[in-house]
Amino acid sequence: MRNAYGLNGADVVSVEVTAHRNGLRPLVHPRPINGAEARYSMHYALAAAMLDGKVTLQSFTDAMVQRDEVQTFFSRVTVFEDEDGPEQPRFTLVKFALKSGGTAERRVDVAHGTARSPLSEGELGDKVRECFTYGKSEVWAKDFMTAAFGMAATPIRDVLRAGRMG
């Protein structure tokens, strides 16, 4: 939504999130104070996405979570579950109230990155590079991706060799 509407964190007065029944059950930390808690926080996911433009593994460090602008953003977020509705189909509805006086909203019925809405090869490559970088791995992400995308024609030993360190 940030990109689609050309928004940033400063544009947002408030955010309202509605999810399917039990959709928020694992998201137990509305005001996380460290990376471990932030992994289970809708409030933090929204703050990181709006303030940073994306949510990555690096987003879940204690330092990123403890930034003043992140902690302040939490008060703008309200979350609800559709307690009377079914658990399926799953959905999330996000509504922004904007400083301009306008609103922006989007309903997501299929999460991007799932089997029903897979990442593109480019997005998948970016994700692999981020994982290798975050893990401080010596693995060459490009070599690994080449082997992985060619798995149908590549012996598994070559795929595993491309994923080994050193």
Which characteristics define this entry?
four-stranded mixed β-sheet; globular; 8 helices; 166 residues
What do you see in this structure?
It is a single chain. The protein is built from 8 helices and 4 strands, in the order H-E-H-H-H-H-E-E-E-H-H-H. By secondary structure, the protein is α+β, with helices and mostly antiparallel strands. 36% of the residues lie in helices and 16% in strands. The mean pLDDT is 90. It has a 4-stranded mixed sheet, with helices on one face. The chain has helices at residues 2-5, 35-38, 42-52, 62-65, 68-73, 121-134, 141-149, 156-163; strands at 12-19, 77-81, 92-98, 103-108.
Briefly, what is this?
The chain is α+β, with helices and mostly antiparallel strands and 166 residues long. 36% of the residues lie in helices and 16% in strands.
Helix content: 25-40%
Give the overall average pLDDT.
Answer: 90
Strand percentage:
15-25%
Spell the H/E element sequence: HEHHHHEEEHHH
Structural class, from helix and strand content? alpha+beta
Which runs of at least 5 residues are low in confidence (pLDDT < 50)?
A: none
Q: Give me the Rg, rounded.
A: 19 Å
The main sheet comes to: 4 strands, mixed
C-alpha geometry: globular
User: How many helices does DSSP assign?
Assistant: 8
Placed side by side, the strands forming the largest sheet appear as 2-1-3-4
User: How many runs of DSSP E, i.e. beta strands?
Assistant: 4
Distance between the termini: 40 Å
How are the elements arranged and paired?
Blueprint: H1 2-5, E1 12-19, H2 35-38, H3 42-52, H4 62-65, H5 68-73, E2 77-81, E3 92-98, E4 103-108, H6 121-134, H7 141-149, H8 156-163
Parallel strand pairs: 1-2
Antiparallel strand pairs: 1-3, 3-4
